[in-house]
Amino acid sequence: MRKWHRWLSVLFGVILLWIAVTGVMSQFADLVAQSERPAAAAVPAGFTCPDGMTCRPKPAPDGARAWVGYLHHLHSGEEFGPVGTALSIMGGFALMFFAFSGLWMYVQMWRARKDRAQKPGWFWK
Description:
Elements: H1 2-35, H2 64-76, H3 81-115
Helix pairs in contact: 1-2, 1-3
């Protein structure tokens, strides 16, 4: 399992770093866009808002809001077409694999340490 974990981390490390960085940037841009949100504009003439709902037009994608959409497309791989989407999906599977294999290796090391009658702590040096 360690061999697979090691080799796949080399291959997918760049993709996972890309997904992590663009995801964080997307969330940060969304926070900035929410703070820059203008006051609610008037509802267009002829439009009736359903009872119990507050209606306002969708804001135009300018400034930070435009960056949110662009970063989302980079994060999901859509900006690079089908290949980018496939890499994003493979990156998601790689994250699941690394989470499972890392936990599996930790449990194996913990059991081996316990079997050798060493201090059975959750963390060790």
